[in-house]
Write a structure and sequence with these properties.
With about 300 residues, the protein is of the alpha+beta class. It has helices at about 10-35, 35-55, 60-85, 115-120, 125-135, 140-150, 155-170, 180-195, 200-205, 230-240; strands at about 205-215, 225, 245-255, 255-265, 265-275, 280-285. Helix 1 runs parallel beside helix 3, helix 6 (about 140-150) packs across helix 7 and helix 8 (about 180-195) runs antiparallel to helix 9 (about 200-205). The longest helix has 26 residues, at about 10-35.
């Protein structure tokens, strides 16, 4: 784009450089608000198209501008997504996001992209979630957040404060396991799973463990969570015998080590866990093929 009233070549180059720098933040805010890689990619594309057409010469903070545009679009999607999820078949889990060395593109990683945190944020209202993510994760001011939500700045501050309290309370019951402990538990779990070792699985599962599967009506999955360590182990052994995986990889998903199951040449499931006191207290399995297409 050059000549006329559009930006010149130097402005194009500057925008492209700024976009490459801030694209992880654009994708990151959309994913944290929506819990969907597909939707976050669509939002990211929309933001780029809008940025390419906009006159940004008076924009002092390109990152804040891009993140705000992404959040506004994601906010609209989030409000309708909550309605759609009321008719979702079975439990809903966030779409797995590969991070670390397996990621196909740079991703901003912190605890807010973990499956447990995304599920906590699902309990927030859309305005609470937007206020919390934009302020606490991306550092935007309450004036900008208030304009996006069409509320006053004090109201935006209150929304973020209320969300922060709810997130903190939920996190009290889910202490973070160290990377080394997570690797140890998942490595032993994988060996027991592959061997169909019921007793070994029971030893690794918390007595009150919860097993959740997200098939979305596209793959066979339990419609309700399975509760209790022994019961979860029995279900896992039975499922393992029914669809024997070709291999089980350890991979970083949402900033945490997870299990990726391969079967018949494709990813069959992505499993994330919550570890409490060295035992698996929550096991979350995504087998909805629509959520695995980008893994």
């Amino acid at each position: 784009m050059s000549g006329g009233n559009g930006p010149g070549r130097s402005e194009e180059d500057s925008l492209l450089a700024g976009w490459q720098e801030h694209r992880p933040a654009v994708f990151g805010v959309a994913y944290r608000l929506l819990g969907s890689v597909a939707d976050a990619e669509d939002v990211t594309q929309d933001v780029w198209l809008r940025a390419a057409k906009a006159d940004l010469r008076d924009v002092d903070d390109l990152r804040a501008w891009l993140v705000t545009v992404a959040a506004r679009r994601a906010y609209d999607i989030l409000k309708s997504a909550r309605v759609r999820r009321e008719t979702y078949v079975g439990p809903w889990l966030p779409e797995p996001l590969l991070t670390g060395p397996d990621a196909s593109q740079p991703v901003l990683v912190d605890e807010s992209v973990g499956s447990a945190m995304l599920l906590i944020m699902e309990e927030l209202s859309p305005p609470e979630r937007v206020s919390f993510v934009l302020h606490d994760v991306f550092g935007l001011g309450f004036g900008d957040i208030a304009e996006l939500l069409d509320v006053s700045a004090p109201a935006a501050r209150q929304l973020a404060s209320r969300a922060r309290r709810r997130v903190a309370k939920a996190k009290e019951s889910m202490p973070q396991a160290s990377k080394a402990e997570r690797e140890r538990v998942l490595t032993v779990f994988r060996a027991a799973y592959e061997a169909g070792d019921l007793a070994g699985l029971v030893r690794l599962l918390h007595p009150d463990a919860v097993y959740v599967t997200d098939g979305g009506g596209k793959a066979f999955a339990a419609r309700r969570p399975v509760c209790g360590g022994e019961r979860v182990a029995e279900v896992m052994v039975r499922v393992g015998r029914q669809w024997r995986p070709d291999r089980i990889d350890l991979a970083e998903v949402g900033g945490e080590l997870a299990l990726v199951f391969h079967r018949e040449g494709r990813v069959y499931s992505v499993d994330t866990v919550q570890i409490t006191g060295g035992l698996i207290s929550a096991y979350r399995r995504v087998i909805n093929p629509d959520k695995l297409a980008r893994v």
